[in-house]
Design brief:
Structural class: alpha/beta
CATH topology: Glutaredoxin
CATH architecture: 3-Layer(aba) Sandwich
Strand content: 15-25%
Number of helices: 4
CATH superfamily: Glutaredoxin
Shape: globular
Distance between the termini: 31 Å
Length: 166
């Protein structure tokens, strides 16, 4: 019960702070060298997942991210994987192909900070609202159900906030 209250309180705080947040954006190369912008995906939820091929928890969550992406990509949400390691492009492409990853994979130089914020450990995921606002960060694995629950909770708390303003 306490955990549930904490979760709801956290959701409300995040929803309130997101109302004042400025849209975030970045430009990173994909595996074909094309420069991709986060803002290309405005209008949908975007889970930006920072990962590496050598990271066991990252590898464990890849199937869940793929499931989430496939179930939502044509409706309301997408996954973007951002590889944070020094790895040969051919090796990374081969890895992505062997893992049957269909969501976009972008590359960024390894470091403790990204445009979206700190990456204290891998995997780290950031959730960006359809308006381009950063609304959550998760250090550690995520799964499809967790992402769906968060989005649903965020949408409900945003709706309540809008209704109370009227």
């Amino acid at each position: 019960m306490i955990a549930r209250r904490f979760y709801l309180t956290l959701l409300c705080l995040i929803a309130a702070s997101a109302a004042f947040a400025a849209p975030v954006d970045f430009v990173l190369p994909d595996l074909d060298g094309k420069q991709r912008r986060l803002s290309e995906f405005r209008g949908k939820w975007v889970l930006v997942n920072y990962w590496a091929t050598w990271c066991p928890p990252c590898l464990e969550e890849l199937p869940e991210l793929e499931i989430f992406h496939l179930e939502h990509q044509h409706r309301d949400a997408v996954v973007i994987g951002v590889n944070l390691e020094d790895i040969a492009l051919t090796r990374l492409k081969s890895f992505v192909e062997n893992q049957f990853i269909s969501f976009p994979i972008l590359r960024e130089k390894p470091g403790p900070r990204t445009v979206l914020g700190a990456v204290p450990a891998l995997p780290t995921s950031y959730l960006v609202s359809p308006e381009g606002e950063l609304v959550a960060r998760q250090v550690g694995k995520v799964d499809a159900e967790m992402i769906e629950r968060y989005i649903e909770g965020f949408n409900k708390s945003s709706e309540k906030a809008r209704n109370s303003e009227e």
